[in-house]
Design goal:
77 residues; mainly alpha; Serine Threonine Protein Phosphatase 5, Tetratricopeptide repeat; TPR repeat; heat shock protein binding
């Protein structure tokens, strides 16, 4: 068995979410941005700007995916 893969950092997840968004995989982007938000919130150093970017990116993904209610929720975070 290969060694357990280390969890990705929030910045790696953000980049992966960006790639999914660019290719039109909005549902996947939403899931990845959600993981990135959780990872960033687990860090001792919480950066409001970085969280804002992740929520904005996820909101854009929700909008493109046709989920306006979740988009509005993320915009109000």
């Amino acid at each position: 068995m290969p060694q357990k893969q280390r969890s990705k950092s929030w910045t790696e997840l953000k980049q992966a979410g960006n790639e999914s968004f660019k290719t039109g995989q909005y549902g996947e982007a939403i899931n990845i941005y959600s993981l990135a938000i959780k990872e960033l919130e687990k860090c001792n150093k919480k950066e409001p700007e970085d969280l804002g970017i992740l929520y904005s990116n996820r909101a854009a993904s929700y909008l493109k995916d046709g989920n306006c209610a979740e988009c509005v929720k993320d915009c109000n975070m």
